[in-house]
Amino acid sequence: PILYSYFRSSCSWRVRIALALKGISYDLVPVNLIKDGGQQFSAEFKALNPMQQVPALQIDGITLSQSLAIINYLEETHPNPRLLPQDPKKRAQVRMIADHIASGIQPLQNLSVLKQMGENKMEWAQNCITSGFQALEQILQHTAGRYCVGDEVSMADLCLVPQVANAERFKVEMSPYPTITRINKALLELEAFKISHPSRQPDTPAELRA
């Protein structure tokens, strides 16, 4: 497999965690979203992913984009350890939380959106994350065990950790979200989350390395 990734991309990070958890080795091709006006806009990369976004994963003779689609494919082809619970209700809760972050928070504070916001980008990002986290905190109070849904790591957790990192980067005050904070702390102790961290990628700038 070949993963096209950017060290700071939260969507790429989700996929790196999934690959690490499932023990799938891969080659990483960095795509710098800032340099050269954004390497994702090159003709070469557009041919690979017409949406001109990371991540993209070449695996089993196909090219997949969209992090949750990639994770679902990995789940179906490498079922252990599972990232979707067997219980239909818990599985629905995992998908709900993953979608809440991947559709309802992250795209609103994405690089492409922030570029449009000009001087207001910090305030915009903070507002988007805060409103999303207010809802997420309430949801997690009903679903969480050690992690987002019960005591097993799931696709929801793969979305949570990168989104908390975004919140910290945009200086969102985290004290109103004790459940989110607790789960994030527990997840960051796991090896798969450590090795996939933005501070430990081949394309991480020297000043941001762990």
TrEMBL record:
GO terms for biological process: glutathione metabolic process; L-phenylalanine catabolic process; L-tyrosine catabolic process. Residues 1-82 form the GST N-terminal domain. It holds the Pfam family GST_N_2. Pathway: Amino-acid degradation; L-phenylalanine degradation; acetoacetate and fumarate from L-phenylalanine: step 5/6. Keywords: Cytoplasm, Isomerase, Phenylalanine catabolism, Transferase, Tyrosine catabolism. It catalyses: 4-maleylacetoacetate = 4-fumarylacetoacetate; RX + glutathione = an S-substituted glutathione + a halide anion + H(+). Residues 87-206 form the GST C-terminal domain. InterPro entries: Glutathione-S-Trfase_C-like, Glutathione-S-Trfase_C_sf, Glutathione_S-Trfase, Glutathione_S-Trfase_N, GST_C, GST_Zeta, GST_Zeta_C, GST_Zeta_N. It comes from the Eukaryota. Its EC number is 2.5.1.18, 5.2.1.2. GO terms for molecular function: glutathione transferase activity; maleylacetoacetate isomerase activity. Its cofactor is glutathione. One of its GO terms (cellular component) is mitochondrion. It is found in: Cytoplasm. The keyword Transferase applies. NCBIfam families: maiA. Belongs to the GST superfamily. Zeta family. This is Maleylacetoacetate isomerase. It comes from Sylvietta virens. The gene is Gstz1.
